Amino acid sequence: MEWEAVIGLEIHAQLATNSKIFSGASTAFGAEPNTQACAVDLALPGTLPVFNEEALRMAVKFGLAIDANIGRTSVFDRKNYFYPDLPKGYQTSQLFFPIVGEGHVDITLEDGTTKRVGVTRAHLEEDAGKSLHDEFPGMTGIDLNRAGTPLLEIVSEPDMRSAEEAVAYVRKIHSIVTSLGICDGNMAEGSFRCDCNVSVRLKGEEEFGTRTETKNINSFRFIEKAIKGEIERQIDLIEDGGRVVQETRLYDANKNETRSMRSKEEANDYRYFPCPDLLPIVIDEDYIDVIRDNLPELPDARKARFIEEYTLSDYDAMVLSGDHHMATYFETVAKTAKDSKLAANWVMGELSKHLNQNDTTIADSPVSADQLGGLLVRIKDNTISGNIAKKVFEAMWSEGGTADEIIEAKGLKQVTDTGAIEKTVDEVIANCTKQVEQYTSAEPEKRGKMIGFFMGQVMKATGGKANPGAVTGILKKKLDALCD
Amino acid sequence: MALDRSDVEKIAHLARLQIDEQDIPEYTKNLSSILDLVDQMQAVDTSNVEPMANALDAVQRLRADVVTEENNRDKLQSVAPAVENGLFQVPKVIE
Questions:
Q1: Chain A residues with CB-CB distance to B73 below 8 A
Q2: Which residue among A24, A75, A139 sits closest to B90, beta carbon to beta carbon?
Q3: Which residue, A31, A384, A480, B37, shows the most beta carbons closer than 10 Å to its own?
């Protein structure tokens, strides 16, 4: 039997406003508990919400970026449920008339083909507070700083068929919201969160299977793992004669598995109705046109520009333009180094390797784009070789400092002095009689490969500081002279 | 439209209202009669009327995105039944 997964995603993007969606309290991350929760956020009697114009503008920007219908009239509704981190007893959201209607994004799959994923809608809503269950025995602590932070909930069509497609979609949305500057995209801090609706069915089947919703996933890697695990769990369950139960599940990154969140799920009954405290939001064509005319460069356009302007390959351009921070970083490095290919190699190679190993993101990279650019300038002007540059990069990563400072302090400056190199080459030739004999007696066309050994010896003797181009030239000249 | 006993119990639960067993028939009757009134209104032909989201004939005013609130935690928490380390304390909500 061949199974097929059906995946739809709900992404919550925190909008990067200064103040909350309905109050003048700050949205800054990391403040002391409840110091950014005002009377409106606490739902004290007599308070009324007033809608933040920037949250509206940001939502419209997103709608235009995904080619969606913008709701000329949108309405806030109350979604009613009880939980202590939701003091009003309802979340102000949009159900019937969302600000952003149907749109779409194109994702690039691993084989290079493009797939269109539908966006059903995107609506404005407020975030809830935070519940801390483990700090006090028998009690739950409530921090309402996050309550009222504006969210854009982006709901996809069930168009994705694999975990890889789902991740490509999430990355694309992430790329769009960060490029637009409407969300900082920080998944670790919860500014960009993803709920995954997953079901399976036999291939060719029209009907969807029963779906589960997995919440609480805060990295691209975990999204892929969680979906893969959930698909497998559902297939195993059905093949063993079981049945998938519609439920909410939590992803446990430590165990790499999803588990049921509630034992007895009562069917949700949110009793939505239009919020009487807020009037309909009406926007006109001029408002939309001004936003459209001022949209920044979007990921697809940026990718095309990278191919054109920096002559990058399709793949390199896709990787470098996919993340807004990475794109900006790359461009700074390329402009400083005046070599886009070298910049691309270092950003996608050494830098990305270090970011992955240290589980950090380019936005938090200890090596800035200016620092890396400065390093590449020294490769370009032959002050250091590519290999020494890696050592300088290591030092930069762990201790900071500019390339020039590190090269100077560690005495890594490349030896380009031909006299000094010649002297070392002479010593190597004198010390390696056996290898020299092999070289001279070898067929001329095989000598090219054999020169690598001598190269290594010279580099060892100079601590890697000799200019590789100069060494090769001198070695070749001197060794070939011995052959005649 | 007539509600039955279980409807009333469910509505009370959703609203987190504790109601007396003996009052349920009365609530059932009263709520049903409200719905009867709704049914009566449903009979009016509204096919040419735009649905309205608010009784006021006005649109939402917008607020500039500026932080205007200061930290008033001490004052705001002075009316809370239990506070610890700046957090509001409530009975534990998960097992």
A1: 32, 34-35, 37
A2: A139
A3: A384
| Number of other CB atoms surrounding residue A44 within 10 Å | 12
Domains identified in chain B and CATH numbers: 5-42 (1.10.20.60)
What is d(CA A310, CA A303) in angstroms, rounded to the nearest whole number? 10
Distance, C-alpha A393 to centroid of its chain: 23
Q: How far is it, in rounded angstroms, from Cα A274 to Cα A260?
A: 32
Angle of CA points A289, A293, A297, to nearest 5°: 140
Taking the Cβ of residue A283 and every Cβ of chain B, the question of whether any pair is shorter than 8 Å is answered with: no
Mutate which of A279, A281, A283 to disrupt the B interface (most B C-beta within 10 Å)? Answer: A279
Q: Where are the beta strands (DSSP E) in A109-202?
A: 114-126, 130-136, 139-143, 150-156, 192-202
Q: Phi then psi for A46, rounded to 5 degrees?
A: 95, -10
What are the residue ranges spanned by the domains of chain A?
3-287, 297-410, 418-483
From the list A28, A2, A224, A293, the residue with the least C-alpha distance to A145 is A28
Question: With contacts defined as CB-CB under 8 Å, which chain A residues touch B57?
Answer: none
CA atoms in the 13 A half-sphere facing the CB of A205 = 14
Among A176-180, A218-222, A464-468, the minimum mean pLDDT is found in A464-468
Is the CB of residue A32 less than 8 Å away from at least one CB of chain B? yes
Q: Whole-prediction pTM value?
A: 0.82
Residue A377 is encoded by which pair of tokens?
Answer: 């300038």
Say if CB A483 and CB A440 are below 8 A apart. Answer: yes
- In angstroms, rounded to a whole number, what is the distance separating the alpha carbons of residues A221 and A72? 37
Q: What is the pLDDT of residues A399-455, one digit of tens each?
A: 888 888 888 887 777 766 777 888 888 888 888 888 888 888 888 788 878 888 888
Nearest to B92 among A133, A269, A282 (CB): A133
Say if residues A58 and A15 touch (Cβ distance below 8 Å). Answer: yes
Tell which A residues from 110 to 169 touch B, by Cβ distance under 8 Å: 131-133, 135-136, 138-144
Give which of B77, B75, B12, B93 is closest to A85, Cα–Cα: B93
Q: Which residues of A touch B56 (CB under 8 A)?
A: 279
pLDDT 10s digits, A152-168:
999 999 999 999 999 99
Return the amino acid letter for A372: L
Across the beta sheet with B83-84, the strand order is: A130-136, A139-143, B87-91, B83-84
CA pair distance A98, A91, nearest whole angstrom: 15
Q: What is the CATH number of domain A418-483?
A: 1.10.10.410
The first and second tokens of residue A96, run together, are 């019937």
A8 has which bridge partners? A197
Q: How confident is the model at residue B95, as a pLDDT?
A: 57
Query: Which three-class secondary structure state does DSSP give residue A127?
Result: coil
pLDDT at A264: 46
